[in-house]
Specification:
Radius of gyration: 41 Å
Number of domains: 2
Number of helices: 11
Bound molecules: phenylalanine
CATH topology of the largest domain: BirA Bifunctional Protein, domain 2
Shape: elongated
Distance between the termini: 88 Å
């Protein structure tokens, strides 16, 4: 065997034995690197005379080619093996159960507000909002409750020490009615809005919490009368409770910002000790439940909101959102709404995928 053949078979057997890509790279440097043994042989060609070079060059070139080919072939084998090994550790077992779904639920208050927005959007109402930290003027004065008005005392108001820009003190709004004034002042007439949001009163028991939710309704246009109010409330309540068996009783009442004022009761029956909406409250075994306050907007409110009450009339109503949720979904303690107990939320909460739609029925499915 010639010297070159010995070098070649030695190189080939060492390349074949290389355990991994690092070992192979070390061999490449050893043979073909700048200081490599095969490279060293190639350099000797430069010092030969032409005849000698012509005689020896092909064999040395062939050696270099053979070593390079062996390196490349082994590299392919090692890379394939490495990929194989990586794929083996990264397998995805498609027989495993699917990951658990989202755990959070939509709070009944949010669900009911979504349902109300959907129902009223269908009737052409936009959604309006106002600040929870309110100016005395919007919460009371502009709603026909001047400084000394006795109705103010009924609101158990949380006041701030700060003086309000329009006089009196800043406060946490006690109802959503100030949004009536803000909307008329900002947008003029006609108006057709609902205004859902948080309200605050210093009061706490099983049916009262210091913070609760209301939704205000306001329609201002020409020639609006009590019939429009009654039809709107009936349509809304039938859609909300998903039954045509809703009987309303309109009772004369008093709110400073509506004239006349109407309190609306809804008939219920007692079934297995629970109140179930439906039927006249006057039927045997039935009763009436107070549901909301409403009335024709007092002309003084329209005036203070910058509109001409001889041209524009309207109606307004205010409902407790939490109360609507309790009636529809059967909770009996309002305080639990705000405890943040996950067990309660899992029981009474709604899927985020369950968007209320009129076509699908606004109510959430169990
Ligand atoms: N703002 C009243 C309340 O909180 C409800 C109401 C709204 C009454 C609109 C009449 C008109 O009790």
């Amino acid at each position: 065997m010639s010297e070159l053949e010995t070098i070649q078979s030695d190189a080939e057997s060492r390349i074949a034995a290389a355990a991994d890509l690092n070992a192979l790279e070390a061999l490449r440097v050893e043979f073909l690197g700048k200081q490599g043994s095969v490279s060293g042989l190639l350099k000797t060609l430069g010092k030969m005379n032409p005849e000698e070079r012509q005689e020896k060059a092909p064999a040395i070139q062939a050696l270099r080619q053979a070593v390079a080919d062996a390196l490349a072939a082994k590299k392919d084998v090692l890379e394939a093996a490495e990929l194989e090994a990586r794929l083996a550790t990264e397998t995805l077992d498609l027989t495993l159960p699917a990951p658990e779904g989202a755990r959070g639920t939509v709070h009944p208050v949010s669900q009911v507000m979504d349902e109300l927005a959907e129902i009223f959007a269908d009737l052409g109402f936009a959604v309006a909002t106002g600040p929870e930290i309110e100016d005395d003027w919007y919460n009371f004065t502009a709603l026909n409750m001047p400084e000394s008005h006795p109705a103010r005392a009924m609101h158990d108001t949380f006041y701030f020490p700060d003086t309000a820009p329009k006089g009196g003190r800043m406060l946490l709004r006690t109802h959503t009615s100030p949004v009536q004034v803000r909307t008329m002042m900002a947008e003029g007439a006609p108006v057709r809005i609902i205004a859902p949001g948080r309200v605050y009163r210093s009061d706490s028991d099983a049916t009262h919490t210091p913070m609760f939710h209301q939704i205000e309704g306001l329609v201002i246009d020409r020639d609006i009368h009590l019939g429009h109010l009654k039809w709107t409330l009936e349509t809304f309540l039938k859609a909300f409770f998903e039954t045509d068996d809703i009987v309303l009783r309109l009772r004369p009442s008093y709110f400073p910002f509506t004239e006349p004022s109407v309190e609306v009761d809804v008939g219920f029956a007692i079934v297995k000790g629970k109140r179930v909406l439906g039927g006249s409250g006057d039927a045997p075994g039935h009763g009436w439940m107070e549901l909301l306050g409403s009335g024709m907007v007092n002309r003084r409110v329209i005036e203070m909101s910058g509109l001409d009450p001889d041209e524009w009339q309207g109606f307004a109503f205010g409902v407790g959102v939490d109360r609507l949720a309790m009636l529809k979904y059967g909770m009996d303690d309002l305080r639990a709404f705000f405890d943040g107990d996950v067990r309660w939320l899992q029981h009474y909460g709604f899927s985020a995928y369950d968007q209320p739609t009129l076509s699908g029925g606004v109510g959430a499915r169990a």
